[in-house]
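Order emerges. For instance:

***
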Amino acid sequence: MSEQPVIIKRHGRVAVLTLNEPKTRNALSRGIIHDLVSFLRDANADTSLSAIVLTGAGEVFSSGGNVQDMYNRSHEMFAGSPHDMQEGYRNHIQQIPLAFHALDVPVVAAVNGVAIGAGCDLACMADIRIASPAARFAESFLRVGLVPGDGGAWFLPRVVGMPRAVEMALTCEMVEAERAERWGLATRIVPAENLLDEAIAVAEKIATFPPRSVRLNKRLMRQSASMSLPDSLELAAAFQAIVQNTDDQAEAVAALVEKRAPSYTGK
C-alpha cells in the first residue's frame, strides 16, 4: 500500500486530490476513505480554496470496493451481524457521499480510466466530470450481489436520469467514454496526456470568480434540486442579498463597468 492513500497538492486556489493506491486499482480502502473524508470535511472552512480536482493514480480512476475484502470478510462492511455491517457502511464508505453533499467547494473529476461500482459513484459525486478516452463507467454492484450502498442510488439518477441509472445498475454494462459524454456522465473527453491539465484549467477558471459567490452558486443549485420553485426562489433571493453585501460582488460590477480585470479578496 502507498504511504499516502490520497496525495493532495495545491495549485494556488485549487487543490488536486489523487487516489494513490494503484496496486488495488484505487479501491476505496480505509486509508483513502479517511484521507478523502478528512480533507472534504475541512474544505468549506478553507477560504483560500476555490475548487478541487479529483483523479486516480495509474490507469484507473477507482475500482470501488475491494473484492478481496468482501471475499475474506476482512472489513466491518462485509463481516459480523447485519447490524454490524450496517454500522460498518455508515461509519466508513457512507461518510464519503455525506462529505461531498455538504461541500460548497466545486469538484472537477478527471476520470483517467475505469470507474467501477463505488468508483463510478465517486465520480458522480463530483460536480463536473472530464474523461480521457480510456474512461469507462459501470454501476456494477450486482456482479458481486450487492446494492449501491455508497450513495449511488441517489447520485447516479441525478447525473444520467432514472431510466439510464436503472439500466446501468441492473445490467452492470460498461459505459465507454463516448456514451458517457452523451449521457452526461462526462462533460467532455480530452486526450489522456491533457486530462489533468484540462481539469485543473477548469478548476482555475472557477477560481477566477468571487469565492463566496462561487460557493453560494453551488449551494443554491444543490439545495434547489430538492425544493419547490417558490422555495428555491426564496433561497435565491436570500443568497443574492448575501453576495450583494460582499466587497467582491461590488468589485465584479466595477471591473465590468470600468473595463478592467477584477481583483478579489474573498470578502
In short: The chain is about 45% helix and 15% strand. The mean pLDDT is 94.
